[in-house]
Design a protein that fits this description.
Number of helices: 8
Helix content: under 10%
Shape: globular
Largest sheet: 9 strands, antiparallel
Strand order of the largest sheet: 17-18-20-21-22-30-29-28-27
Number of strands: 37
């Protein structure tokens, strides 16, 4: 989206922030993996947490022998449920585990927060720290002075990406059971206290390491320490959205909607962002933002961070590292966005490698369409090379000339950039700078299919060699005949409310220059998963694209019993389940879903507060024998009073205010599973 409508259109979509719960699965021996909004323990040892049944005697349950019964979407018959994190009524939303000895264990799912943003929590030094609080480059609190006499530190209502991390030799005092860590990042804050000052993009994103005390008998997690990571060494962080856990046990963050270097510093937020970060409107360099940050957790519960400048400057959200520990598949939450891939030179080291962008050759344009994928080589770089360019003072006009009106000069090439026409001319010899600092424009110049809209989370199914990407909305540049579309690339029909696409991954692929791509995990084909295509209300064979024209009795623009505007994705190998969190402007409440790839069963397992977005999805199959599903939510009660929420906001607004600190707070937590029966 353009800078002028970035705030409005982004926030109108962010609908439900769910925190990250944890579930104990009986007798599991699952490989570590991250999943949102489920988890748990139960039973008599600690009510609400389920002891691992036969944990040391019965062995692991067979792969795939977990099912979810799901829950109904809340309605105004239970307004309290619509205004909080809700996991269903009695008898609903159970996880059924078939044990190795033939018995079946049944767990009732629920949600448990670690904290709400704005809480004062332990800093591990005998003091307190503000959860989700903002700090400047010197580690000093950034103050909200918008209401005279009520000055306070800014804190986020938008927690997002999270990871659970276990280390071999942790060293944090105050832990009675097993020591675990969680990394949680905060995307933005919606409003200042005066509720009129829009704060989107104006504050440097905080990122925190949580030390958690895991009860070895029940699996319960308790917060012991909250550490705010010092980001001064990477020039602060910009709009940290989704995240993933690397195979080498680090947290891969994101910097979404990289600021346009050719826009004014007022329209791309740089002046106010820089003022809050540095106390100087001119100091922040636009090219330091839009990269891939990586957080390493230390045994003492602190963390260090670095940015990988060689992975391309795009709107990354939730990247997926492949089992070779070198290949990264990256979506691009953008209009006229691309599918990108980075292949590192060395395993477990993202500091150098080759950047690729996809070309889609369409094989069908019906509904969500499908296409074969080939790859354009954008170049090789090291992070140091690119960072040195930035530190050396490279300017946008040193790289290329950009016009927003036709210069009537054949030396310029017309491209699509964020829904609009640009005419660009590359400065001779600046190909590398263009590829890694003006990645969107350079990829378009090189003939990439810069046609996707809001391609968000990406995750991997190793056994079937499939990856999944969430296409949050199918609109604008993806639609046949749209002014933002690229003829000969992606030209499909809809639906507006999006779909989850499946990638077929292969080895033996070559780039546009005929060179072998050094990876066995390359996307070769994309097509939507039939069960994971949304259904706009009023949609039929003749009108596959409806675009928010029709509502049901509650106000939904999309069928609430199907996914809508999918965002966070995590696949769990042991459960054979794809978890999907929504960022929907077409569902009144956003949901977290579980989709079994073998049975094709889709079940709703969590509802976030109305007006919120489901974020922070992470699934961990085996941490000391326990399974956890992590989930957060964002900006509860971010109302669309004339559209999506017109039928509910008046009744729900007082409840949202009561539950979530007048809309300033949101939850970070996990799903629990209370043992119901073993038969």
């Amino acid at each position: 989206m353009s800078e002028s409508n970035l705030v409005t259109s982004r926030r109108s979509l962010l609908k439900a922030l769910s925190t990250a719960p944890m579930l104990p699965l009986a007798g599991t021996s699952l490989g570590a993996s991250l999943l949102a909004a489920c988890g748990g323990s139960g039973g008599t040892a600690a009510p609400g947490y389920v002891p691992a049944i036969g944990k040391n005697s019965q062995g692991a349950f067979p792969t795939g022998n977990i099912t979810f019964t799901g829950m109904q979407a809340p309605t105004l018959a239970n307004p309290e449920a619509m205004a909080t994190t809700y996991a269903g009524a009695a008898g609903e939303n159970q996880m059924i585990v078939k044990l190795a000895d033939g018995r079946t264990a049944t767990y009732k799912l629920a949600y448990k927060p670690f904290f709400s943003t704005g809480d004062m929590v332990n800093d591990g030094k005998g003091g307190k720290i503000l959860a989700g609080g903002y700090f400047d480059i010197n580690g000093k609190p950034i103050m909200d002075k918008s209401v005279t006499g009520q000055e306070r530190q800014f804190f986020s209502d938008c927690p997002d990406g999270s990871s659970i991390i276990a280390l071999d030799k942790p060293n944090v005092s105050g832990v009675k059971g097993n020591t675990l860590f969680a990394v949680v990042q905060f995307e933005y804050t919606t409003w200042a206290q005066d509720k009129t000052t829009d704060m989107y993009g104006l504050l440097p994103s905080p990122i925190a390491v949580l030390t958690l005390d895991q009860n070895p008998d029940t699996g319960e997690l308790k917060l012991v320490k909250y550490h705010n990571v010092d980001t001064s060494g990477v020039h602060g962080l910009w709009i940290t959205c989704g995240a993933s856990l690397s195979p080498w046990n680090t947290h891969l963050s994101s910097e979404e909607y990289e600021p346009d270097a050719f826009a004014s510093r007022d329209s791309n937020y740089m002046n106010k962002f820089s003022t809050n970060l540095y106390g100087d409107a001119a100091k922040a360099n636009v090219y330091h933002y839009g990269h891939l940050p990586e957080v390493t957790v230390n045994p003492d519960g602190t963390g260090s961070i670095r940015k990988h400048y060689a992975t391309g400057r795009i709107s990354k959200e939730l990247v997926q590292v492949m089992p070779d520990h070198r290949t990264i598949l990256m979506g691009d939450d953008w209009t006229n966005g691309g599918l990108f891939m980075f292949v590192a030179d060395k395993e477990k080291d993202l500091s150098a490698g080759t950047l690729y962008v996809a070309r889609w050759t369409q094989t069908s344009g019906v509904m969500t369409g499908e296409g074969n994928i080939s790859w354009i080589n954008l170049g090789h770089a090291t992070s140091k090379e690119i960072e040195d360019m930035i530190v050396g003072g490279i300017k946008p006009t040193d790289i290329m000339d950009v016009k927003t009106a036709d210069p009537l000069d054949a030396s310029y090439t017309r491209i699509k950039y964020n829904g609009k026409d640009n005419w660009i001319k590359l400065v001779a010899g600046k190909e590398k700078a263009a590829a890694f600092l003006e990645t969107h424009r350079y990829a378009a110049l090189m003939g990439a299919s810069m046609s996707f809209t809001k391609m968000e989370g990406t995750t991997l199914n190793i056994k079937d060699k499939k990856a999944y990407s969430a296409m949050s909305r199918i609109e604008s540049s993806m639609l046949m005949g749209n002014k933002a579309s690229l003829p000969g690339h992606v030209e499909v029909q809809g639906p507006y409310s999006g779909a989850v696409y499946e990638h077929t991954l292969k080895g033996g692929q070559r780039d546009d220059k005929g060179n072998a791509i050094n990876s066995e995990w390359v996307s070769a084909h994309m097509a939507a998963v039939p069960a994971l295509v949304s259904e706009d209300i009023g949609m039929n064979a003749s009108t596959p694209y409806v675009s928010k024209k029709n509502q049901d009795a509650l106000g939904n623009y999309a069928n609430p019993d199907k996914i809508a505007t999918p965002d966070n994705l995590k696949f769990d190998e042991r459960m054979r389940t794809l978890f999907i969190g929504e960022d929907s402007n077409t569902h009144v409440n956003n949901f977290l879903w579980a989709y079994n790839v073998d049975t094709k069963s889709l079940t709703r397992i969590l509802s976030t507060p109305a007006g919120a977005e489901s974020t922070g999805l992470h699934a961990v199959s085996n941490v000391n024998g326990w399974t956890y599903i992590m989930s957060n939510f964002q900006h509860a009660g971010d109302w669309d009073k004339k559209g999506l929420h017109s039928k509910v906001w008046e009744q729900l607004d007082p409840l949202i205010n009561k539950n979530w600190n007048n809309k300033f707070s949101a939850a970070v937590g996990y799903m629990t599973g209370e043992l119901v029966s073993v038969k």
